[in-house]
Task: structure prediction
Amino acid sequence: MLDEATGSLIRALGGLRAIAISHPHYYTCMQDWAHRFDCPIHLHEADSEWVMRPDPAVRPWRGETLEIADGVNLLRLGGHFAGGTVLHWADGAEGRGAILSGDIVQVAADLDRVSFLWSYPNMMPLSATTVHRIADTLAAWKFDRIYGAFPNRQVMSGGARVVERSAARYVELLNGDQA
Result:
């Protein structure tokens, strides 16, 4: 919700320079926020069909990464949606690096695990190939913390290892390795 109190609070904290959204489930009123704070919206072009209100503030990007500020990069991981994006913040977690994952990399109830699904409401998994690609992409980026999409769903340390271990187990289970 974007009301006057929220707008005032965000302006008091320094405002917004850019908006980045992980995937279409969160697109809703992004244009209103962009206009209120006079900033662009960065969305991966693979999900452009899901923008229901075209607007000059929407800046589709292509490729696998986009730097939106010093040390702040968008990483296209796909999976849940073709343009599924996480934000990598190099200085996050006191300089150890952090990712803001939305539910592209879903922090599980067991905070030592993440998961990867094509459809969360229907509990439909991603393929082993896609999970490997996501894990391999993230392995190239330094991060210790994962901020998930939902309250109390943060991996506070060891985030890169959590992704690596979770992806390996996910693929084992898809392949029928029940050990």
Q: What stands out?
A: The chain has one domain: 4-174. The helical segments are 4-12, 30-37, 92-95, 128-139, 159-174. Residues 4-174 form a domain with the Metallo-beta-lactamase; Chain A fold (CATH 3.60.15.10). The chain has a mean pLDDT of 95.
